[in-house]
Design a protein that fits this description.
Helices cover 45% and strands 15% of the residues. It is built from 24 helices and 14 strands. A five-stranded parallel sheet has the order 6-12-13-3-14, with helices on both faces. A hairpin with a 2-residue loop joins strand 1 and strand 2. Helix 9 packs across helix 10 and helix 10 packs across helix 11.
Length: 578
């Protein structure tokens, strides 16, 4: 579990500690408003190499290179031991335990100058380098003839092991079992194996291969299956349909593969590396073909020793297709980088701009990505940075997603206002609360006794006292000291309605305004009577409407708090109370 992530002096973050408790192998949505520092968090991880942090000059906090960056992680291992890991400009202990990779938007504006004084600009999609260095095409060096000769008189019993070495997926599995291949060459194992080979070689060498295979199946297969490490390779080969029609052939192929590995393990590994590259390229090209319906043929190309996906100019490809193709390309690249037992994948707001169909596709590939790591007994932490709150925007539909709200600063919810919102529909107070507390009305009420009975602060039973309270909370909010977000929402609605009310000149107009339900409808009524409210007063409905209701069995605080911490929202509210 990643319990805590701490960032210092990177881009917009001077110092922030994220107390998260993130569990592996499930999508983790890290929600915060624009301007909070999500991209700074992504930059932090993107700046780490295996040895230290290397920041671009303009990525230092306040663009001051004296502000030394630091990244810290508190990590709880599977055995419950706690590790405090850290990266600075001089060292990096995080890389000893994690691989990490960042996916962000690859579309960048490009200016085109002109010697005649005019200039143009266009959107350019950066090529995605899938493989930084294409491995050397190294052959395995296997010879079926030599293998039969080395086996002995009855070498014809052996199957052609090229069936194994030409199967890209099977070679990928073999490359995960180098230890078994090496240990299959142990002295005791070879002694037992040589005894079995000697028994086979005393059979009738004029017999057909099928006859010899049947004899091995009946007389030697059980003994072969008892040989440690060889049985790992034999069972693995037997899982694949590669033309061997009996289990004995899988084990006889395993003998050859183990011998080939131990003849020159470096050559064998190099050949596996190239085979795995071919498999990765094949898989990616198939995926790319699925999504590539543009007339521009987007495909992989081998360029300067690298495997690259080249994209056309942004005007020649739809936004949705561009976004999903670049995302899948980067996900492929991430998989080649994230090799450790524990891995961090950061996706920086890529999901926020996908259309519904491509968003579904992207989530499918993330789900498959997680599944692959789980099957490999590895831990992957996909951290999806977003400004879209899942409680309001139904973009994310992962079955086991976990949501973390990064921005919880200065939030101090009073139990009294929770009780008010929970009980606002109580018949003893419903009409008066709606009319005098949650909307503006110049009249007065006294519901102190009823409020006291419902455990709501008694003084708020008089609407002037409630208005004073929520206005004080607004001042706390605007001056960056702890505040009650629900009180701010209430004060905002009262203030916006009062501004419109006060501009109405006649008693009749004011009475008509008070008689209308819902803030938007009130503002529209005022407009009919010649009083036009600023557009921001309508836009702020996402604050004063959402924050005045309490929903059972869900987080009511974080959604509204994340909106209030948005710097643009804060500026709009500041203008209302100016």
């Amino acid at each position: 579990m990643i319990r805590i992530i701490e960032i210092e002096n990177i881009k917009g973050i001077a110092q922030k500690t994220f107390d998260l408790g993130i569990y592996p192998n499930k999508p983790s949505l890290l929600v915060a408003p624009n301007g909070f520092g999500k991209s700074s968090l992504a930059t932090a991880f993107n700046s780490m190499n295996n040895n230290r942090i290397i920041l671009a000059e303009d990525d230092f906090h306040s663009e001051n290179m004296n502000n030394l960056p630091r990244i810290a992680i508190e990590y709880v291992q599977e055995d419950k031991t706690v590790l405090n890991l850290e990266a600075t400009t001089n060292s990096n202990t995080i890389s000893s335990h994690f691989d990490y990779f960042v996916i962000n938007n690859l579309t960048k504006p490009k200016g085109i100058g002109s010697r005649f004084g005019n200039a143009t600009a266009r959107l350019e999609i950066k090529d995605v380098v899938l493989v930084d260095r294409i491995p050397t095409n190294t052959p395995f060096g296997y010879s079926f003839r030599n293998s039969k000769d080395a086996f002995g008189n009855c070498g014809k019993v052996l199957p052609n092991a090229n069936s194994v070495l030409n199967n890209l997926v099977l070679v990928e599995k073999l490359s995960e079992n180098y230890q078994a291949l090496e240990r299959a060459n142990g002295l005791l194992i070879q002694r037992r194996l040589n005894e079995i080979i000697a028994r086979i070689n005393v059979q009738d060498e004029t017999a057909t291969a099928n006859v010899l295979n049947n004899w091995v199946s009946l007389n030697c297969l059980n003994d072969l299956k008892q040989i440690n490490y060889l049985n790992t390779i034999g069972d693995l080969i037997n899982e694949f349909d590669i033309g061997y029609n009996c289990e004995a052939k899988s084990y006889l192929a395993a003998i050859q593969i183990a011998a080939l590995y131990n003849t020159n393990s470096n050559t064998f590994k190099a050949a596996c590396t190239f085979s795995n590259y071919r498999l990765d390229k094949q898989r990616f090209d198939e995926t790319l073909t699925t999504f590539n319906c543009t007339w521009r043929n987007i495909s992989t190309s081998q360029t300067a020793g690298k495997l690259v996906v080249k994209f056309p100019q942004a005007i020649h490809i739809s936004n949705g297709q561009r976004d999903i193709l670049t995302f899948i390309s980067m996900l492929f690249r991430a998989k080649r980088h994230l090799k450790k037992g524990a891995n961090i994948l950061i996706i920086d707001e890529v999901f926020d701009y996908l259309d519904d169909a491509n968003l579904t596709a992207a989530q499918y590939y993330i789900t498959q990505f997680i599944k692959d790591y789980k099957l490999a007994n590895k831990r992957i932490y996909p951290l999806i940075l977003t400004h879209l709150n899942p409680n309001y925007f139904k973009n994310f539909t992962f079955s086991n997603q976990k949501v973390y709200y990064l921005n919880k600063s200065n939030i101090q919810v009073a139990q009294g206002i929770i009780n008010l919102l929970r009980n606002r529909d109580d018949l003893t107070i419903k009409a008066d609360v709606s009319k005098y507390l949650l909307h503006y009305d110049p009249g007065v009420i006294n519901k102190r006794a009823e409020f006291r009975a419902l455990s709501i602060p008694e003084l708020w039973g008089e609407n002037d006292n409630f208005e004073n309270h929520v206005n004080n909370e607004v001042q706390n909010y605007l001056t960056d000291i702890p505040y009650d977000p629900f009180a701010v929402c209430g004060a905002l609605r009262l203030k916006i309605e009062r501004i419109a009310y006060d501009k109405l000149q006649s008693p009749e107009a004011r009475t008509a305004f008070i008689g209308v339900h819902k803030t938007r409808s009130k503002l529209e009524k005022a407009e009919e009577m010649g009083i036009v409210s600023p557009e921001s007063h309508y836009l702020l409905g996402i604050i004063y409407n959402e924050g005045m209701h309490w929903r059972l069995n869900q987080d009511n605080v974080s959604p509204i708090a994340s909106k209030l911490e948005n710097l643009t929202i804060k500026k709009l509210i500041t203008d209302v109370f100016a």
